[in-house]
């Protein structure tokens, strides 16, 4: 990133509501970050409710006939679940914990999909007890385990997760469409076809469709078209062999957002148009009715709505570097350490006329690798007590946060029309000690 790009520090990556004020503060959802940091302490996560709702509406507008299921692993809390329900978005969960929280918040279980490459007995029992809409089968062994739990006379709707042989995404660790990884059933070695045959022969399961998820942070449309083609090919063979026309295909999530200045996220309108055109063409050629499309975006619904706010605790100059250490780090945002993911900080709360300097923005955890952003420009006069905020913080930060070094996890507030609401309180040392029974 050039030094200039950061001094200009436009708010393109920030929520649409973000406004710079004359004194160097930034308002998000009408709430000044300095006053939020004063009131709730730092590190602090801020989620702009209107931004989440706007993204949900953008999906509904681009995919009016599809089922859009938010991938709860990106971030989950009860208020968010209610906003999504109001915006007619379904959910994708991957544990009993996520499912139970959503249902406790009033989310209708029949609009939830349950995922997991290794579903526990509790995951499956919870899914059946709460009446989850669909279980996405990820292995042949799961077929009998699930069927055995379905009460007599009832049927559980399921999808089969297929490995389409197409992978994409920002890092090897999140590419999931290739052969020889832990997710899904291979088309190439026949496992997917075998699972389909088994499900069709299992009276307590109803196969509604095929699923794939090729990876995360994908900005191009082409990999989705290729994956859709594979699923439609299998669907056509199933129709030929068994006379069963599956009513759904699920292309998973993975839609990219801009994480750096100048970057672009996926173009939803283009994605929708090209998927729909190809779906229509392929089904016409096969002489089959079109299936309903399901999608599972996580990041693309919430990432840009989130901002993380930190307080600078220390500035250290060494022979070749300047370290700016904040009161968070890999505990609340493990993405830079895990994937080298970008993080674009800006000074908030005062105007600095000092020239930008390259610094390493680091956390306060006991690891040399606790670097939030290496070699990023911040004003040369940055000092302890300053606030630094990082945008695009709404996905896979708090949901992947840990209490490493017994620093509790940060709170999260929602902002809307100038009003902050505390949605998740700070995790205090007491919360952590309570689990330690001392014996
Ligand atoms: C099965 C499945 N669906 C959806 C998602 C959501 O991905 P993203 O947040 O990149 O949209 C994931 C995570 O990558 C996933 O594993
Ligand atoms: N946690 C990953 C994406 C999620 C992968 C889940 N299948 C990231 O931050 O990029």
UniProtKB/TrEMBL annotation:
Pathway listed: Amino-acid biosynthesis; L-lysine biosynthesis via DAP pathway; L-lysine from DL-2,6-diaminopimelate: step 1/1
Listed EC numbers: 4.1.1.20
Known catalytic reactions: meso-2,6-diaminopimelate + H(+) = L-lysine + CO2
Positions annotated to bind pyridoxal 5'-phosphate: 254, 296-299, 396
GO terms assigned for molecular function: diaminopimelate decarboxylase activity
Ranges of residues in domain Orn/DAP/Arg decarboxylase 2 N-terminal: 50-303
Pfam families with a match to the protein in the record: Orn_Arg_deC_N
Keywords for this protein: Amino-acid biosynthesis, Decarboxylase, Lyase, Lysine biosynthesis, Pyridoxal phosphate
Superkingdom of the organism of origin: Bacteria
Modified residues (N6-(pyridoxal phosphate)lysine): 73
Binding site for substrate: 299, 335, 339, 367, 396
Family that this chain belongs to: Belongs to the Orn/Lys/Arg decarboxylase class-II family. LysA subfamily.
Function: Specifically catalyzes the decarboxylation of meso-diaminopimelate (meso-DAP) to L-lysine.
Subunit structure: Homodimer.
Name under which the protein is recorded: Diaminopimelate decarboxylase
Organism of provenance: Streptomyces evansiae
Gene: lysA
């Amino acid at each position: 990133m050039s030094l200039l790009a950061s001094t200009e520090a436009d708010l393109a990556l920030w929520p649409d509501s973000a406004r710079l004020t004359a004194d160097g503060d930034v308002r998000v959802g009408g709430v000044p970050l300095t006053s939020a940091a004063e009131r709730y302490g730092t590190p602090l996560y801020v989620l702009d409710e209107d931004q989440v709702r706007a993204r949900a509406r953008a999906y509904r507008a681009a995919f009016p006939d599809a089922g859009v299921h938010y991938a709860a692993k990106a971030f989950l809390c009860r208020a968010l679940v209610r906003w999504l329900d109001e915006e007619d978005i379904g959910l994708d969960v991957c544990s009993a914990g996520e499912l139970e929280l959503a249902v406790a918040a009033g989310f209708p279980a029949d609009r939830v999909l349950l995922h997991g490459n290794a579903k526990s007995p509790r995951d499956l029992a919870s899914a059946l007890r709460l009446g989850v809409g669909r279980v996405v089968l990820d292995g042949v062994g799961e077929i009998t385990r699930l069927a055995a739990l379905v009460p007599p006379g009832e049927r559980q709707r399921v999808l089969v997760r297929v490995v389409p042989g197409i992978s994409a995404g920002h890092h090897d660790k999140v590419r999931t469409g290739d052969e020889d990884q832990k997710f899904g059933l291979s088309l190439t070695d026949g496992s997917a076809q075998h699972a389909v045959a088994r499900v069709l022969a299992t009276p307590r399961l109803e196969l509604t469709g095929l699923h794939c998820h090729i990876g995360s942070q994908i900005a191009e449309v082409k990999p989705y078209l290729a994956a859709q083609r594979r699923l439609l090919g299998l669907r056509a063979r199933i129709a030929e062999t068994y006379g069963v026309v599956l009513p759904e295909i699920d292309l998973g999530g993975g839609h990219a957002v801009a994480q750096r200045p100048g970057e672009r996220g996926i173009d939803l309108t283009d994605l929708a148009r090209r998927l729909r055109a190809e779906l229509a063409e392929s089904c016409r050629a096969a002489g089959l009715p079109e299936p309903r499309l399901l999608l599972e975006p996580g990041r693309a619904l919430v990432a840009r709505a989130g901002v993380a706010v930190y307080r600078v605790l220390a500035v250290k100059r060494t022979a070749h570097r300047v370290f700016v250490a904040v009161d968070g780090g890999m505990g609340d945002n493990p993405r830079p350490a895990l994937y080298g993911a970008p993080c674009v900080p800006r000074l908030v709360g005062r105007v600095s006329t000092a020239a930008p300097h390259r610094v390493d923005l680091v956390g306060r955890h006991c690891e040399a690798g606790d670097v939030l952003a290496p070699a990023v420009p911040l004003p040369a006069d940055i000092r302890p007590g300053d606030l630094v905020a990082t945008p695009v913080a709404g996905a896979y930060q708090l949901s992947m946060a840990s209490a490493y070094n017994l620093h509790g996890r940060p709170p999260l507030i929602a902002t809307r029309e100038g009003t902050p609401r505390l949605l998740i309180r700070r995790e205090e040392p007491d919360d952590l000690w309570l689990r330690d029974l001392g014996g």
